[in-house]
Write the structure tokens for this entry.
Amino acid sequence: MKKLKIKNVILNGKRKDILIADGKILKISKKIKEKSDCEIEGKNLAALPVFFNMHTHLAMTLFRGIGDDLPLKRWLTTKIWPKELLLTPEKIRKGTEIGLKELKKSGCPFFCDMYWWPQETAKLVIKHKMGGILGVPFIGKGPLIFSKRFALKNFFELKKVVKNYPSIKIAIAPHAIYTVSKNNLVWAKDFARKNNLYYHIHLAETKEEIKFSKEKYGLTPVEFLDKLRILDEETILAHCVHLEEKDIKILARRKSLLVYCPTSNMKLGVCGVFPFRRLKDSSALIALGTDGVASNNNLDMLEEMKIGALLQKHHFCRPEEIKAREIFEAATKIPANFLKIENEIKKGNLANLILVDLTLEEFSGGKDIISHLVYSANYNCVKYLIFNGEIIYQRN
Amino acid sequence: MKKLKIKNVILNGKRKDILIADGKILKISKKIKEKSDCEIEGKNLAALPVFFNMHTHLAMTLFRGIGDDLPLKRWLTTKIWPKELLLTPEKIRKGTEIGLKELKKSGCPFFCDMYWWPQETAKLVIKHKMGGILGVPFIGKGPLIFSKRFALKNFFELKKVVKNYPSIKIAIAPHAIYTVSKNNLVWAKDFARKNNLYYHIHLAETKEEIKFSKEKYGLTPVEFLDKLRILDEETILAHCVHLEEKDIKILARRKSLLVYCPTSNMKLGVCGVFPFRRLKDSSALIALGTDGVASNNNLDMLEEMKIGALLQKHHFCRPEEIKAREIFEAATKIPANFLKIENEIKKGNLANLILVDLTLEEFSGGKDIISHLVYSANYNCVKYLIFNGEIIYQRN
């Protein structure tokens, strides 16, 4: 059993030694004398939980910076879709590899993805010793049709790839309520329930979607999915920008995971804001995501936390609207709890943690490390990323 | 005459060699055979202009992360002001040194500052071979009074420190229209004109300021300063969040430099947005600034460009509201032109440039380096900062 010792690291404001073995945190104390196979001197480091990026289209690193600053429809129809039509498994591998490196360097070993050929993504996630929910895409309208048959093919291939790798979970990922029929939305949920899968969908992102939903179904998108009995504790809803009070009540009750994607929402001008305070006060579960790189244009969870907090303060004209710790928890603790993945640095837990470099100027001034992580630092502060007890990334 | 050669660097989309000597760009061509004393291999680098951070309170690095997420008034009265009362020249030096390091690593050799003891800041700017407009603070209301007499004392001391260092320029910096009397605002402008100084003031930042101005003077803050003949080509106005159409016309006509501070405005919830598009379309001069670290909480101009562009797109619900190149110019070309500092990489100009690392994942995807700088990269991409022909920063 290989042992890793982190010495003199700041953990919750105190200097500690941390001993890791067999993927788990064996011991935390002021001084651990026990020998180890590998040692990290932590005197300039702080130990913190890892980040979860809960809405991505990872291989879209291929389209970074393509068609920025265009109106949404023109961006999709003239830039993104034509390029997506030319995607191949090989290109997906290339884009995914870049994305995984970006995720790791921002202290994020786990992501919730929705993109083509998840079976290819899975192979790379395993190679990098990371984790994720990989969504099998499913779309019935638009230039690209992913039929039920194609989804099933992808699903069975993906299942085979990940069967001995518990850090990858599978989702069925119907694109949105305006691109997948009511019957297929329901079929996908039934399939997910039967196969013990998550259900990952874009929801209430634009005003056009709300209009569509009300006109076609006479319901808000949230009411519509709720009526179809799709909202539950295995459902992940990306965006949730345009919500009414009744939607918030439903979402809080169903305990689906709501993924706030502030940068993407701002960059695409979706004309609304994820109602963080109201959702949080209603005990809804809030996570954070970067969305795809094409609308961000990176995967830096530290930057995402800052932009997420700033957007709330700006939009509601209140500096006190959201606290650094709340957005930090949306990036760490809340998604971990939702996924039942241990992400608290304590004895007996799986060793999932980052070590951040406190010598950077960004950590000068006050003593609140969470504030500095949210408002001051960027991914550059992440010196080590440890996932399931292994160092999967180290900044030189 | 010491010579520096940058080989094979990407400049405006093409591979070039750049030869620098005596502070200036001696030659740019496909292949320079001439020998040099120092060589940078640029095959993974792109050369771009340097950034100008046009509104800072540099030594406030001391207060980073102190009192985040509090209502504005409580933040100032319970956190910032009590700490500022205890400032000493020694503390100012400590905070400034941290700030200068942060500026350099984000590719920014020049800043426009307003803070206590500018003569101490000046000594450090000279030490670091950087440049700036250092403002002599002047405030008549609040817990800290900086009288005319104190301003004059500071001014003469500062003048002595910078007299042989042309990269530092001096401003008189009355805090705001609600903390400095009408007579003193005018006295400061007269003093600036007589002594060939810039005039740096906070303007139209909060709704309270607009209310104050209209109630006390029957004018908007912009109209008020214009009536006092303070607005001209040597005036720098930080914030300009709450503007009416008539203000925009005045500002465009007077050619004062307007400093957009998006992160600070969002973090403090000032409840409005710098009207970038309307100002730009009126030919007003727009620069970019981080404001003090206490309300940002860093000095990263790359992050500031991204947040600045996102805020416009969000607020006006239009992805096309602002283009990457426009915010990039607000951070580079426009302030440089205003200050008459050469910041274009061409033969004969002063050698002011950054070299950015194109091997980072953030530069993958599309080919538009400006897009990647604005939306994807952070300060981590800056490998070299060259100011007045000297390498003043190099990332290891």
User: Anything to note?
Assistant: The domain at 3-49+343-394 of chain A is CATH 2.30.40.10 (Urease, subunit C; domain 1). Chain A has a mean pLDDT of 96.
